[in-house]
Amino acid sequence: MLGYNGTIFAYGQTSSGKTHTIMGQPDNPGVIQLALDDIFSTIESTPDREYLLQVSYLEIYNEKLHDLLVETGKAAPELRVYSDKNGMHIKDLKAEVVSSPAEILELVEKAQERRHVGETNMNERSSRSHTIFRIVVESREKVDADSAVSVSLLNIVDLAGSENAAQTGAKGERLFEGSNINKSLHTLSRVISQLSSEG
Prior knowledge:
It comes from Plectus sambesii. The protein contains 5 helices and 12 strands.
């Protein structure tokens, strides 16, 4: 809320509770709900600022990008990653302007229905993809229309779990998905290791 960017990862073996940690339950809120509670509490406590909130929801399935905010049955845009002087971007990723936690949670629920899941020996609803829920918070002082705009990004990442084919019993399509999941997790760990060692 102060102009800094942040990312939260749920990382671990398949069937270890990552999606549950992110999504939660009505009586046991997850990371998304807790983040929204904090964001809207801050908005209510700072009436001297005006806010603009946007959310997007990206899925990475078999190394391809899908927009989870695009309705099922419609032709989804071909998503590509590109970079410019302002950083990395995803072309044509939908950003929905939102104004309440309930509105955001409704979008999240619909997006989750579009996510790729499948059954394995270890989990009857195994996530077969990684997802990135992003909320962009823009704000500025109300009294000064020319004041600087503060922009913050919060990425909440639900990674598919690392898999051992012998344990999951994966074959065919599930084996192909598991191979891509493991490959991308290995690449991510190398990137994080490299970034942390450059301190």
